[in-house]
Design brief:
The protein is an alpha+beta fold. The protein contains ten helices and eight strands. A hairpin with a 7-residue loop joins β5 and β6. α3 packs across α4 and α4 crosses α7. The longest helix has 28 residues. The N and C termini lie far apart (48 Å).
Length: 245
């Protein structure tokens, strides 16, 4: 898998991707997500860049384990918060970068708000899939009620740690919170309510306003399953409970 380490500034004498040989040769080519199309390795400079000219790092599963175990040793239970915050900052920065390269890649003049959201989101996640972060599925059916669900298949964190009996994909949760907050310019939070590391077949995240996330965290601590939490939110239980106070 790869991790994005830096994004080059736009004002560098050339636009994004000019250093990528395939993009320079085929500037209109958009089906570039095969591994050897999307990435370019420069042995002279020792760099590994992608189609959008972002520098990447190649890491192993041992790196993931070392990062998590190192944080747990340093800060204990707060390591999950640290991982979430790392992901959140990454997501906010990636939202800004995405809003720069996406219109240039496809030649769009209208803003992202004028485009269909599912299309925009798939355009953002495809590079992440190529980098090794897994496939996803987004459920926007409850968007108007202030929340949505995201499924991640083959989470690199959960797959690496194995069945440990608890949610472990705090980096992903932070990433989604940061990216969507940056995309719509409103503060959103995210929580993992189902994880491959709990013996499930995929990971499920709840993204939304803070009151939804707080309710889900409370129900989860009380032993509710992801299906129970999803059912309660879809039925409006949180809304009714708030109204009775």
């Amino acid at each position: 898998m790869t991790m994005t380490s830096s994004r080059p500034p736009a004002a560098s004498g050339s636009y994004f991707g000019a250093n990528h040989l395939l993009q320079k040769k085929y500037p209109k080519r958009h089906h570039h997500y095969a591994l050897w199309d999307f990435f370019q390795f420069d042995s002279d400079r020792g760099t590994y860049t992608d189609w959008n000219n972002a520098r990447n790092l190649l890491v192993t599963e041992d790196f993931i384990i070392g990062l998590i175990e190192g944080l747990e040793e340093e800060v204990g239970p707060a390591s999950s918060v640290v991982m979430y915050k790392i992901g959140e900052e990454w997501g906010r920065r990636d939202a800004r970068f995405f809003q720069e390269w996406f219109p240039k890649e496809y030649g769009y003049e209208q803003g992202l708000k004028q485009m269909r959201l599912p299309y925009v989101l798939e355009a953002w996640w495809w590079p992440c899939t190529t980098q090794g972060w897994g496939n996803w599925e987004v459920d926007l059916s409850e968007q108007k009620h202030g929340f949505m669900f995201i499924n991640i298949f083959d989470s690199v964190v959960a797959r690496t740690l194995g069945d440990v009996g608890r949610p472990v994909c705090h980096l992903y949760a932070g990433l989604f919170a940061g990216f969507f907050s940056g995309l719509i310019q409103k503060d959103l939070s995210c929580i993992e309510i189902q994880c491959y590391a709990m013996g499930e077949t995929y990971c499920k995240f709840l993204l939304g306003k803070q009151d939804r996330i707080d309710a889900a965290a409370f129900w989860q601590n009380e032993g509710a399953s992801a299906r129970d939490i999803e059912k309660r939110l879809r039925s409006g239980e949180l809304v009714y409970a708030t109204a009775k106070r």
